[in-house]
Design goal:
Largest interface: A-B, 26 and 26 residues
Shape of chain A: globular
CATH topology of the largest domain in chain A: Rossmann fold
Largest sheet of chain A: 7 strands, mixed
Structural class of chain A: alpha/beta
CATH superfamily of the largest domain in chain A: Formyl transferase, N-terminal domain
Strand content of chain A: 25-35%
Strand order of the largest sheet of chain A: 3-2-1-4-5-6-7
Distance between the termini of chain A: 19 Å
Low-confidence stretches of chain A: none
Number of domains of chain A: 2
Oligomer: homodimer
Helix content of chain A: 25-40%
Number of strands of chain A: 9
């Protein structure tokens, strides 16, 4: 069985949906560790309550490069056997850019969710971007993390409609509902080895 | 009642779906003229058969600037009363870039359909772009034409799923089916004055 590490910075609602789905839907993966870059992230308490171990690598005031910070993260992941061979890393609202050293070491082993239909609206404030563009649909994308910004191979995408009354808040809420559905689904596919990566495409079996 | 001009370069399957929908679904617009930039465009015969007048402004060998070419188009549109006040211009596979003079004169009066969920995959070969990106969804967008490339305010978007077996051909076919559905729908909304444009957003009532 694979070991799962989840990185958070805040409440980690996607972390929660993944952890709950593992139990409920019997996803064959061991939730090994939740790591936060902030000691006061609300998600830490939630993880603990759900019986998952937690660690903090405080990023505020960290003396060192991005690669050195990520080395700390990797050493914790390794301690909990979330290795490039036996592990999966999920980013769940982890508000840091990952170093190329980290993404290369865990190639096609780190996944993230982004609140838009990539390649549309990458980066921050995707919901606002979609509204300002006047898009009539948006959604979310679970994807592998590579060294680019929201550019890795896509695993699943879900669509939501945008109507004239939508605000950033209502759109975010609609998208988040879909996030909580497809992120655990992607973890399940990964755990069951149903995702093959070929170039920048994924093939789901 | 508004007057409709449709510009084509080839078979004009979207032209056909619009013209048939006007009759069948009683869209309150007068199909005034179909103009092709190629004398041998197959869509000309189809338009004639459907009882719509046709004209050709041959672009091959046209001596003059893009703006001068478009002036010829505008003079034909005017002849058939497809004016900025009483007209709507639909591009249906019209393989020419429209001059800023033309788009300014017919501001929010020229619409086009693009085979992707804009702003993703603009320009040519959108279906191929989507497949190469590894997108799990794509679709089509009806939008107003401004001076940019596929950048004008969006009226309607429709979504199709992409699966592992899709080729450029199968994806194009799936998207085309949606195009034939939403393009007449957009013409109907326009004809019934149900589209308001505010900045780059459209509000559908």
């Amino acid at each position: 069985m694979l070991n799962l590490g989840i990185l958070i910075s805040g409440r980690g609602s996607n972390m929660e949906s993944i952890l709950k789905s593992i139990k409920k839907k019997k996803i064959p993966i061991n939730p090994a560790i939740v790591i936060s870059n902030k000691h006061n992230a609300k998600g830490l308490k939630i993880a603990k309550k759900l019986g998952v171990k937690i660690e903090v690598v405080e990023s505020k005031g960290f003396k060192g490069t991005r690669a050195e910070y990520d080395k700390e993260i990797v050493s914790i992941l390794t301690k909990y056997r979330v290795t490039p061979k036996k592990g999966l890393v999920c980013l769940a609202g982890f508000m840091r850019i990952i170093s190329p050293e980290f993404t290369k070491k865990y190639k096609n082993r780190i996944i993230n969710i982004h609140p838009s239909l990539l390649p549309a609206f990458p980066g921050l404030d995707s919901q606002k971007q979609a509204l300002e563009y006047g898009a009539k649909v948006s959604g979310c994308s679970v994807h592998f993390v590579d060294s680019g910004m929201d550019t890795g191979p896509i695993i699943i995408q879900a669509v939501v409609k945008i109507n004239g009354k939508d605000t950033e808040e209502t759109l975010s809420k609609k998208i988040l509902k879909e996030e909580h559905r497809i992120y655990p689904e992607a973890v399940n596919l990964f755990a069951r080895k149903k995702i093959k990566v070929s170039g920048r495409k994924t093939i789901i079996s």
